[in-house]
Amino acid sequence: MTRVVQYHNSRAYATNIYSTPATAGASEAEVQSARAYCSKLLQEHQLRSIGHVRTFDSPSYTLQTFIPPSARDAYLAIRAFNVDIARVADSVSNPTVGALRMQFWRDAISKSLAGSPPKEPVGVLLAHALEDLQSRSESGARLNKSWFLRVINTREQYLHNAPYPTLAALETYAENTYSTLLYLTLSALPLTSVAADHLASHIGKAAGIVAVLRGLPLLAFPQPPNHHSNNAAFGGAIGTPGAGRQGAVTLPLDVMVESGVKEEQVLRQGADAPGVRDAVFTVATRANDHLITAREMLKNLRAGQDVGHEFEHQDEEGHEYTARQSSMGTQAQNEEVDRGFGVLMPAVATSLWLDKLQKADFDIFKPQLRTREWRLPWKAYWAYSRRKI
Predict the structure, then answer these.
(1) Which of 134, 185, 349, 371 suits a disulfide with 59, CB 3.0-4.6 Å?
(2) Model pLDDT for residues 282-328, shown as the tens digit of each residue
(3) What's the rounded Cα separation, in Å, for the pair 162 and 160?
(4) Measuring CA to CA, which residue among 325, 68, 289 is closest to residue 195?
(5) In sequence order, what DSSP letters do the residues of 311-332 get, joined into one string?
(6) Cis, bond preceding 69 (omega within 30 deg of 0)
């Protein structure tokens, strides 16, 4: 019998590419090549879904159409950066090599933000986007280096599938990766807004938790390296014992204990392991809680009310606001949120996947959970045009 979910808020909680002149350090051809690489990287993941699921970011290619054209190069660079960082886990098995790759990205980001990118597509496009951002901003807008480093450091912490000790630790991971990607994109508009950042925090946490859930089957039953079949990515026999090398179960340990899930049983029995659906349900509920919170915040703002709770990351690095920004009335906050609304569209993709998971009765190994979401373009357009998430 399929359970009926009552998700609840348990906590207070275009593909048309914009072109600008090349940077001083890169030729126009180099910038165009970098732009094509970043766009193709996202598009390939949408079309093929190859590799470790942590690199699977297919909605980003579709959702770029809701990003203002002037910020689209930055968006592409930020999202391609996320994919390339995540792919490190697929390409290395030696911790030392993995650490060296992460250090390469730290150096690449530092050089790119300083205007001297390495001959690497993401770095070239990022430096170009930053120069363009500064040229169209009167207030010295920038892309926060510490946010890029936060993503790298967090990815490195879980490079070899270290378990999340608690559900709260998984939320922290999502905040430091997926929420931070949204903060970077908002800053590329440029937009510094308590309300928009607060919404992005909840939406990013939901997206990050869902990304980990989506990745669970591919980590528990990873395919042999350099295989030539896309069947696993598009609904093959993931979750079937013996289908490939055994891996790891990335559900939070406290949730596994509470639900009676044992890793060795999941690795042997897949979807038939005792308690695994209950554990997935618990984690998915937390993701949906964050979406509910974001919707309630938006509803309150539209009604001229306070969002309902404080932004827990206010005054942290990168979230320092002026007195004026911190004390804006609801009308001004609504205007800021409307300006940055396209950045919040991952909420739609996240919600659609959670709906599919519920219809699958929280069987995380169901093939349909690894197929492309054909409804996303029109669902996102509907949400964007009505300013709803």
Answers:
(1) 349
(2) 999 999 999 999 999 999 999 999 999 999 999 999 999 999 999 99
(3) 6
(4) 325
(5) -TTTTSTT----HHHHT--HHH
(6) no
